[in-house]
Amino acid sequence: MGMLLVDKPAGITSHDVVAVVRRSLRVRKAGHAGTLDPFATGLLVLGIGRATRLLEYLAGLDKEYLATARLGVATDSQDPEGSVTAEDDCWRSLDTDRIRTAAAAMAGRLAQSPPVYSAVKVGGVPAHRRVRRGEAVELPAREVTVHALEVLAVDLPEVRFRAACSSGTYVRSLAVELGGRLGTGCHLTALRRTRVGGFDVRDAAPLEAVRGGEVPARSRVDAVPALAHLPRVVVEPGEAAMLATGKRVPKGAPDCGVAVFALPGDRLVAVGAVRDGVLEPRKVFHRA
Hints:
Blueprint: E1 2-8, H1 14-25, E2 30-32, E3 41-48, E4 63-71, E5 73-75, E6 84-87, H2 96-104, E7 108-112, E8 121-122, E9 125-126, H3 127-132, E10 142-155, E11 158-165, H4 171-182, E12 186-196, E13 199-200, E14 205-206, H5 207-211, E15 220-222, H6 223-226, E16 232-234, H7 237-244, E17 249-250, E18 256-263, E19 267-275, E20 278-284
Parallel strand pairs: 1-14, 3-12, 16-18
Antiparallel strand pairs: 1-3, 1-15, 2-3, 4-11, 4-12, 5-6, 7-10, 8-9, 10-11, 12-13, 17-20, 18-19, 19-20
């Protein structure tokens, strides 16, 4: 039981990657901790088997991306798969210093409206489906955090940048925002996710390797190490047996909303909360 790191190629959906993993590794259950658009490449963190129950604890991790934006052209989807809605040549007056300054100024908290061509659900239906049916969709802005927006290269009208941001941030929208601050239209032409929390795309298995049943050891992450961002409480065998039956266990540990309860040797027992020093299991993985 654990996580699998996969390097998604362009041209397929995240769901397609999950299907390949299920079929190639002959597992019934698999899921991912955060989708990538079909045109995007990079890191997908997948839960295998019972580890799919842990994916909710990974979904909120910070992300990091490498991206390329095209100034002077806006599309309805904010990416290369959409229709061009506007073109201008205002980018011709820009220089590298001005672009870097505008990008750096975007670090911090932003109110960001998700693209209407996105998986954000409206009444239980993904927004992109409603738009393609001809429905008018308006998504409310939500607060995101941009830890860094670093311009790596400028070859006008293209700008290559690195974005480190909170979960739920749309890099497409960051590109459009950057263009707006520079007085020109903009859309994303390439996107690669390089990090999810402590997971790195350099450790991910190419999808073709997974398809062939060859998964490097570095691409597999056991459950407890995968939850390294959460507080961990080491329990004794007797305590593990109590937790396995759903019982609360007095431990004297510091209170926290979500914690990992594990036996020595990184053997996952449960995920739960600690209240008044008492361990309260919510999801149990250990058999009594």
